[in-house]
Structures are given as structure tokens and as C-alpha cells.
Design a protein that fits this description.
The protein is α/β, with parallel strands linked by helices. The protein has eleven helices and nine strands. A five-stranded parallel sheet has the order 6-5-7-8-9, with helices on both faces.
Amino acid sequence: IPELVQPVASETNFDIIIYVGVNGGSCLPTIDELVQLKNIAPTIFLCPEASDTQWWHEHIKKYYKEKCFDLIVNLDGNSDWQCSEHGMTRLPPIDTTPWKIHKSWEERKYLCGFWGNRGNGIRNEILNILGGTIETHSNIPATPENEEGDNLRSYDLYIDFLRNCKSVLSESARADGKIISQIASELTEPTLINIINNGLEGGRTHVKVRVVEIGLAGATLIEQASSETKKWFIPGEDYLAYTTVDEIRQHIHWVESHPDEAQKMANNLHDKVLRDHSPKVFWRDVFNELFSRV
């Protein structure tokens, strides 16, 4: 960073500097270096999960105290984060270009899908209970470019999978300091239901990037009732909300038995994502807020 700051300061005129933050590693800029960058141009900090207190609470508290940024933007959809009254909360801006080609309802191969790390905890438990009801990406054959494992699967494959789903299950419980796999052995049905309803460690949830992507894919979203998703979209109109595994089953059956209504719900989510959460709308709002402050 010191090698970066001086050339930036002496050779280039910037209108805005955007810092996409991480909270660990050997290359993190110091507080002084961030302040130096702010003196060059107005600065924005894009934080992927500011409401995750385990990872971000102390960082953001320090950033605000030392006035490192003109604006902090939280991208996880949960407005309950350190110093949130001085920043913005939004959903992540996803490039819509790769998602523009849709499959018809009849062309979609999977009644309900799930993509993500199922791990050894909550998600895995839910998927185990549901058995073969849900298609997971681990069942999709690897292609030559990603044959080494799930972590190397291409974004195109991910997009194609979601496009082939009529509905997609989302689980947005936040761990906040407790490793999910550590409590897997303690799970009982009441415990599982409580976690579905409230998340972990104080009931914190967020909005996964996948929620926006499911909307762009034109699939029906099946989401936790407690998720912050309800603050951005309308349950029962834009997506199906669940509080128990039985309700997930009921929702999947409804998607199968009411295709017209399910498509309408999927279209509602799709249209609202494009209207309210496109990159164009995101950056318009962020820049307007930034320039109202500087």
C-alpha cells in the first residue's frame, strides 16, 4: 500500500476511490494508509457482510472512529451493523448480462434446487431431511474445466443450474461466531426449527447474494421467514417463506401443482431485482449519497 499511495497521489487525478474490503491477510492497508487515500479523493468502502459481528464489528468501528472513509456501504441486506446510521445498506449489485437468456418453465429440469456449501451443519441437515426432493449442484457432472471439485466450478455452470430450477431453496442463518459444523451433532428437530427461524447467536440473518441471482434466473425463491429478505421483497408475493422443513416440502409441492402462480411469483422477484437492485440503480444511490457528504 505505501508503494501505491504515493504514485496515486502524485501522478493520477481520481474522482472516487472504492475500497472492496477484506478483514484478514497480510496485505491489509493500515488506518494511516486508508486516510491517505481518502485525502486523495472521496472514498467508499464496500463491505460484503458488515452485520457479521464476528468478522467486521471492530474493523468498522475503527474505520468510523478514524474517519477512514467518506461512505461505508454494507452489501448483506441487514441494516443492523456497527455505525450503520452513518452508512448505507444495500443488496449486492449483480451484473445482469449473463442472466438475460431465460429458460421456459417447461424446459427447466429441476423442481427445486440448492447450490452452495452444504457443510456438516444446518444446510446439510435440512437437505438430509428432505432427501431426494431437492437437486443439489453436487449431483451435476463436473466439466473438464472444473473437474477438480466444487470450488472450481465456473460461474456459467452455476447460472445454468439456477436457470434449470423452477424453485431454489435459500438458507440465510448467520453463524456470528459459532461454527455451524460444531453444533451439527446437537441438532434436534426443535433446535433446527429455531435456527431456521432465528439464525444463530442472537437471531442474526442476512440476504445471500443467491437471493438476487435466483431472481435474475427467474426461479421461485424459497427463503427463511426470518431472513432480512423480507425487508426488500414481499413474502407470498415475491417469494415463499418457510419456518419448518415441512413448510419447505409444502412450498415445493405448491410450485409443482401451481405452475402459473409459481411463475408469476418468480417474475415478481425478477422484475423487482432488475428495477430496484441493478448495478445502475445501486451506483446511482451510492454516488448520490457520497456526493451529498463531500
